[in-house]
Specification:
The complex is a heterodimer of chains A (302) and B (334).
Chain A: H1 2-16, H2 18-33, H3 35-52, H4 54-57, H5 89-125, H6 127-141, H7 145-156, H8 160-187, H9 190-197, H10 202-239, H11 250-257, H12 266-293, H13 295-301
Helix pairs in contact in A: 3-5, 3-12, 5-6, 5-8, 5-10, 5-12, 6-8, 7-8, 8-10, 10-11, 10-12, 11-12
Chain B: H1 2-29, H2 34-39, H3 45-55, H4 61-73, H5 87-122, H6 127-141, H7 144-158, H8 182-188, H9 192-229, H10 232-239, H11 244-282, H12 287-296, H13 300-328
Helix pairs in contact in B: 1-13, 5-6, 5-9, 5-11, 6-9, 7-9, 7-11, 8-9, 9-11, 10-11, 11-12, 11-13, 12-13
The chains are: A mainly alpha (302), B mainly alpha (334).
Chain lengths: 302, 334
């Protein structure tokens, strides 16, 4: 009896959502068909796994110093060598994965809601609200991102938390603009008019009708931005305006290893590979997702 | 279209005003004590107060803001605490250095990026295309400062192909200042040795920035060319029996150019940003390194000066791109 109901429920759910189900299936198919996207996805999955299981994977503690083993070249004990305080570079890179993901996650957790909120308001209400929000966005976009992030980071005081806030403050206009554009085109459609005629409030229309339709565009854009977020954060740490010691941050590792470039090349070199590979992975994945969500391409492949 | 251009210019003015305002408020949040930095921590109270009056720090915030705006209109940012010179004078020296580097990198990037992008599009999915796509993906994923360090390690230390850093060798004195661009000034003065030395010193940072920008321009050229090559009129041209070279350059590339020009403009903005990191790595005395040093020493006047100047350049390059776009594409009507 119970089983019957649940089966019925599943069947009816499938019926109601059949277009979405086939959409997801098609997306998965397209991802599988594109080797570049698969490589990107693999890199990111490895990164996430490494970040989660860092304490089990890393051979050493990332911050424990061992002055007897300062600047040891790569060997069986320390696969990627040790830094100026005798810390194992491989372990620091492994723990650094978590730091990098945390930066991306927090920046987007600030920017997506903020951008969506401001963009929806600007697009839906128009008039002076739109004008004010978009002009502020223009001003923020008039700074090169790294410069503005440096300025905000310095004003708040250089540390990892403030780096994330600073990067978030430089990126929200992108999402606000996108959300505004989507809202402008969606709000003219008949079903919104119908909702309004039925007496739905503005808030209800914004949250239940417009917001879900903006989401896919914003997610694509966010994926494309993930690599950039890491790059800016690494740049700030490198300049000494971001993460502070002893955080196992990749940019900071390059910055402090810089003095050993000529004689102990492994100290600044390996963390750079980690940044390059991670940003590369996010860019591959972002490109793939953008192509897949492009309706031109979808129709072409069908 | 004129209406659009005027509207765009007005937006530019609003943005610059906003930039200046944001910079003012940011610089007032920075936890620095300029008076303490000049006089030392144990200065007597009367001296501190006198200094504050001189710097206008005793005024209420709105009056300080007006004073600050007046200064900027006269291009006066006050003295730099670090260099003990007026900030505008400092920038007069460092800004041309960054422009020289940015133009050099952009020159490399446009030539390589467009050429490789066209080849890539024409040989779509063949070996040259795959190689160039991987190289450009690596390029856009590359942290500029790290690539700079690799260049120093390999090209300078192991191969001796580039100098370690700086803008000129210590034995060579800068050419008489006309534009501030050493390449140009040395040619004007007829000092060819200085010219080659300046060019030699641009190689390291120029190639780092150039590769990264090549990657961006190459990607845009490729996708724009691919789009155009699919058009009906290209097929018509081919059916007419025109040579492939003519089809590609006269018919396709001309129409693929607009996104490429946009990208070049955006690239210029990225170059300003990239110069901050690259100049720091190569010890190149440009505006980017000046800005970083000002930030690190909390030298507020030079922070404000350099950030304002960089933002004005960046906003101007966006303005030029938008205007070019409106002028070049006859399909766009505003």
């Amino acid at each position: 009896m119970n089983k019957d109901i649940s089966q019925n429920w599943i069947a009816s759910w499938q019926k109601r959502h059949s277009s979405e189900v086939s959409d997801v299936k098609e997306t998965l198919y397209l991802i599988k068909k594109s080797p570049m996207t698969m490589i990107g996805l693999a890199i990111i999955l490895i990164l996430v796994t490494v970040a989660i299981f860092a304490p089990y994977i890393a051979p050493y503690n990332p911050v424990t110093m061992n002055l007897d083993k300062r600047l040891a070249p790569p060997s069986k004990d320390n696969l990627l060598g040790t830094d100026e305080l005798g810390r194992d570079i491989l372990s620091r890179i492994i723990y650094g994965a978590g730091v990098a993901l945390k930066i991306i996650f927090i920046v987007l957790a600030i920017d997506l809601p903020l951008g969506i909120l401001l963009g929806l308001m600007a697009g839906y209400f128009g008039g002076w609200i739109d004008e004010i929000i978009m002009r502020i966005a223009d001003i923020f976009m008039a700074f090169p991102r790294l410069i503005l992030a440096m300025a905000i980071g310095t004003a708040l005081g250089p540390n990892l938390k403030n780096t994330m806030i600073a990067i978030a403050l430089t990126m929200w206009p992108v999402y606000a603009r996108l959300a505004r554009g989507e809202t402008l085109s969606i709000k003219e459609r008949t079903f919104i008019e119908a909702e309004r005629a039925l007496g739905s409030s503005n808030l209800k229309i914004l949250v239940f009708n417009i917001l879900p339709l903006c989401f896919s565009t914003l997610i694509v854009r966010a994926t494309l931005d993930m690599g950039n977020i890491i790059r800016i954060a690494a740049g700030m740490s490198f300049l000494g305006l971001g993460a502070q010691p002893p955080t196992p941050d990749w940019g900071l590792m390059i910055s402090s290893g810089r003095n050993f470039l000529i004689n102990q090349w492994w100290v600044p070199t390996f963390p750079g590979f980690a940044i390059l590979l991670t940003v590369f992975g996010f860019n591959l994945l972002g490109d793939g997702i953008r192509d897949i969500s492009d309706p031109h391409l979808r129709r072409g492949k069908k | 279209m004129l209406k659009y251009l005027i509207k765009r210019l007005m937006l530019f003015v609003i943005v610059i005003f906003g930039v200046v305002t944001v910079t003012f408020f940011l610089s007032h949040v920075i936890p620095a004590d300029p008076v303490g930095a000049i006089l030392g921590e144990n200065a007597p109270q009367e001296l501190v107060e006198k200094m504050e009056r001189e710097l206008g720090l005793d005024l209420p915030l709105d009056q300080q803001y007006i004073r600050y705006l007046k200064g900027i209109i006269n291009w006066d940012f006050g003295m730099s605490l670090r260099t003990q010179r007026p900030v505008s004078k400092d920038m007069r020296i460092y800004f041309p250095a960054t422009m020289e580097l940015a133009f050099f990198a952009l020159f490399i990037a446009i030539i390589l990026g467009v050429a490789i992008g066209i080849i890539s599009a024409v040989k779509r999915n063949q070996l040259p295309d795959n190689i160039s796509r991987i190289f450009s993906l690596i390029g856009i994923s590359m942290p500029a400062f790290w690539l700079g360090l690799l260049f120093i390690l390999i090209l300078y230390y192991h191969l001796g192909l580039i100098p370690a850093g700086g803008r000129l060798s210590p034995s060579i004195s800068p050419p008489p200042m006309v534009s501030g661009l050493y390449l140009l000034d040395s040619l004007i003065a007829g000092e060819f040795k200085t010219f080659w030395d300046a060019l030699y010193h641009l190689l390291g940072p120029g190639l780092v920035l150039g590769w990264i920008q090549t990657a961006y321009i190459c990607r845009v050229t490729r996708s724009s060319m691919l789009e155009v090559l699919n058009e009906e009129y290209i097929r018509t041209a081919r059916v007419k029996g025109l040579k492939e070279k003519i089809v590609i350059f006269r018919h396709a590339f001309k129409n693929a150019l607009i996104p490429v020009i946009t990208m070049v403009g955006i690239s210029f903005g990225y170059l300003l940003e990239g110069s901050v990191l690259t100049e720091t790595v190569f010890g190149y005395p440009g505006l980017g390194r000046y800005a970083v040093n000002s930030f690190l020493s909390l030298d507020l006047n030079s922070v404000i000066g350099s950030v304002t100047l960089i933002a004005i350049c960046y906003a101007s390059s966006n303005l030029i791109v938008d205007m070019l776009y409106a002028v070049l594409d006859p399909r766009i009507k505003y």
